Amino acid sequence: MPAWHHALTQAEAAWLVKKLLQGIDDTPFRIPFRSKGTPVSKRYKDSQFRGSGDLGIVVERAKGSVLIIETTTHTRLAEIQRLGDLSHASVVYSRDQRYAYLFGRDGGLTKLDMLRGKIVKRIVQAGNSIGGAISQDGRLVAVSNYVPGGVKVFDAATLELLADIPAESSNNQRSKVIGLVDAPGQRFVFSLFDAGEIWVADMHAPRAPKIHKFKNIGRQPYDALISPDGRYYIAGLFGEDGLAR
């Protein structure tokens, strides 16, 4: 039997065996396949059968909602409401571009299914957040938090908490975290605003991240970016004129 024999009913399997024994000619034929008892057409009943690379999100900050749009014909497909404080919201996308991860200012992390126009899961993981990132393999989602200061890392599929990285400086005070980006080698890089430090989190073991700390990099590192080749992380300094690289 073929590798997909489990998708056939007993009657369909018997029909196929009979057909093979009779011999296959050039006449086209079709087997009414079913996947685990569910007709193929039903599997797409609740979603748009389209490629996801044309979809995008517009954040409606004042309304606490987002619009899902497709960009070829500039069409509004859906509106998703009740997403909390989106006054400083940002979004990252899954590798297949079907799911969007929305980071709210109120600590909300929401996974959105853009094909179905619905919330997959929403959690409030902190009191005050300022953006996030998704790992290059698409398996981890990280959030940078002001309150309590630190980074939390979640499973991208389930939003299960995998790691909580408190941003504690040498005096045991928590620092606001900002400028979080993903970097090659399954790493996240972020800045500690109050401590004047930049940290690199190696997430090869998601539940036990390894942290490399760069101290005394300047006063109050703020917004940051990473170079296209992933080699340089550059943070603007809010507390003085200059950049840290």
Please describe what this structure looks like.
With 245 residues, this protein is mainly beta. The protein is built from two helices and 20 strands. It has a four-stranded antiparallel beta sheet, with no helix packed on it. The chain is elongated and about 80 Å long.
Structure annotation, total helices: 2
Q: Report mean pLDDT, rounded to a whole number.
A: 88
Distance between the termini: 60 Å
Estimate percent helicity.
under 10%
| Main sheet properties | 4 strands, antiparallel
Overall strand count: 20
Principal-axes shape call: elongated
- CATH homolog superfamily of the domain at 125-244: YVTN repeat-like/Quinoprotein amine dehydrogenase
Radius of gyration: 24 Å
Strand order of the largest sheet: 6-7-8-9
Detail the poorly predicted runs: 33-45
**H-E order:** HEEHEEEEEEEEEEEEEEEEEE
